Amino acid sequence: MRAMMNSADALRPHPNRPDPVARLDLPAHVPIAIVGSGFSGLGSAIALANEGYAPSDVLILERRLGVGGTWYDNSYPGCRCDVPSNLYSFSFAPNPNWSETFSGQPEIERYLQSTARRYGVLDRIAFDAELESARWDAERSVWELDTARGSLTADVLISGGGGLSEPSIPDLTGAETFAGTSFHSAQWNHEHDLTGRRVAIIGTGASTIQFLPYVQREAGHVTLFQRTPPWVFPHRNRPTRGYERLAFRMLPWTQRFSRARNYWMGEFLLGSMLIHNSPMLTRLERLARRYLARQVADPELRAKLTPTYTPGCKRLLQSNDYYPALQRPNVSVEVEKIIEVVPSGVVTADGVLHEVDTIIYGTGFRITNNPMAERVIGTDGRTLKEHWSSAGVGMSAYCGATIPGFPNFFMLAGPNTGIGHTSLVVMIEAQIAHVTGALRAMRQRRGTAVEVRPEVASRWASEIQVKAAPTVWNSGGCSSWYLDEAGRNTTLWPDYTFRFVRRTRPFHPADYLITGTYGEGGSGNGAAVGAGLDARVGSATREPSTSAPTP
Ligand SMILES: Cc1cc2nc3c(=O)[nH]c(=O)nc-3n(C[C@H](O)[C@H](O)[C@H](O)COP(=O)(O)OP(=O)(O)OC[C@H]3O[C@@H](n4cnc5c(N)ncnc54)[C@H](O)[C@@H]3O)c2cc1C
């Protein structure tokens, strides 16, 4: 679609955003520390404010110099969401002014920034404060946090560090000897002028199909190194119409209706096919094959671009300009395996040296080995990563959020919360409701620590693997980042998302151990999470507006 190729976001210079707020000094102690300022971190801070917590009760630790998370980092040309914006946004903060139906990265970043400002959480963010380690001190019932800007303690730690926030760069022999410029799509080098350059693009995932058409227009030559072709469908993005924006502003129910329609269509059309690895997926495959045949005339190139696995097994991609770009005279598609990188380029298994000046890695993210798992240390002195490998279940968390042995620790967008057919924000909002429910229960019992019962977490983990077995992600004939090294699905929710919402939103105290009594320990010990709040808002805490039923 031409609308996607407007010059406004074509190879735009990196915004080089200035530090948006005054440098916030780290306190010695904060009741609730949140890692990250993407949808998860901002949504949590807003929900906690609605719950009655004072601004000084909550601190967001953010390693970057601006908010947005994914939408701050990924500033590559052509970056946009692949879920309609009316659904890919907070349910409590609709934006009637989206300029396109599937917004581009700059607009989503601005949306998150203005939402943070509007809900008063912008000045609760300590930027440039990467969390380096978090250790649970059982005696004091506090998390000891080390950050790039110093140490502090917190009664509760909420991780909104993101599942797709750590670029994954393949360990290619000789990559460090490359004499040209190389970068990952999530760390786009806007200073590097691509005009006339010979560019290698490695990987054919969701980011590559978005930025390749832009690179093709600038570069002298592009070689795309493809291991597995994706299934590609037409993109339905279009500019929003004036009357739609007016209706959304004047009659907000129309936007809620659009959100709900997108949500339920996603669940029952696409979601049900993927969850059940349904024979209907062959119809989807026929559609994609027809699209490929219409767009790519050359049978040899078409063969290279035809996947051999069931659609949906890897993320379904949407683009109107990817296939046309691949047929431009300055693009070649290489399917030979890369065996090494040398100073002048990339060598493939057939012995050919592809001379290039620039390598762009479109190789995705570290998902099943996210560094956060190495930084968080629980009651028995083991990291999350060690806990998961010793438990033998791989990455796993009850409701994608809580882990036995890690009290007062909540992961948002954690294990098995990813989705292949709808908006992750739906999952994140359900988890936030779970977290606020947990804190409310802890206060009501005057406890200082809340921890999921091991048997509850282990039942959940087994249930997920049983549910995952028949899905297209496990049985669709591909290897993908959805599965860990043991072939377990530890990333995606293998069912309808309304079932996740139904299970996760309500907090059931019986699933948890609530221990300690505040007021009886040393420093921290939950006093501010409980007593401080009791003093301000009493026990009749109001239901946060962010927990309005999703979608
Ligand atoms: C290019 C791209 C397109 C996507 N499109 C869609 C889409 O269309 N629909 C969809 O549902 N999902 C999409 N996703 C998934 C997307 O990641 C989630 O939808 C959502 O943005 C996740 O929000 P989050 O807050 O959980 O994590 P993130 O947005 O990743 O934010 C994590 C934040 O934590 C910070 N952080 C991480 N570690 C630390 C640390 N140790 N200390 C301090 N700060 C830290 C990071 O700097 C970052 O700001 C896309 C992802 C990518 C990469």
Structure commentary:
This protein is an alpha/beta fold and 551 residues long. The chain folds into two domains: 24-165 and 367-539, 3-Layer(bba) Sandwich (FAD/NAD(P)-binding domain); 175-236 and 270-361, FAD/NAD(P)-binding domain. The chain is built from 16 helices and 20 strands. Strands 1, 2, 3, 4, 5, 6, 17 and 18 form an eight-stranded mixed beta sheet that branches. Strands 7-16-8-9-12 form a five-stranded parallel beta sheet, with helices on one face. It has a three-stranded antiparallel beta sheet with strand order 13-14-15, with no helix packed on it. Helix 1 (39-51) runs parallel beside helix 12, helix 5 packs across helix 6 and helix 12 runs parallel beside helix 15.
Q: How many E strands?
A: 20
CATH topology of the largest domain: FAD/NAD(P)-binding domain
Give the name of the CATH architecture of the largest domain.
3-Layer(bba) Sandwich
Radius of gyration: 24 Å
Poorly predicted runs = 1-14, 521-525, 537-550
Number of domains: 2
- Name the CATH homologous superfamily of the largest domain: FAD/NAD(P)-binding domain
Average pLDDT: 90
Tell me, what's the shape? globular
The distinct bound ligands, ions and cofactors come out as: flavin-adenine dinucleotide
Q: Helix proportion of residues, in percent?
A: 25-40%
Secondary-structure class: alpha/beta
Sketch the major β-sheet: 8 strands, mixed
* Spatial separation of the terminal alpha carbons: 28 Å
Task: Give the C-level CATH assignment of the largest domain.
Answer: Alpha Beta
State the helix count.
16
- The share of residues in extended strands comes to 15-25%
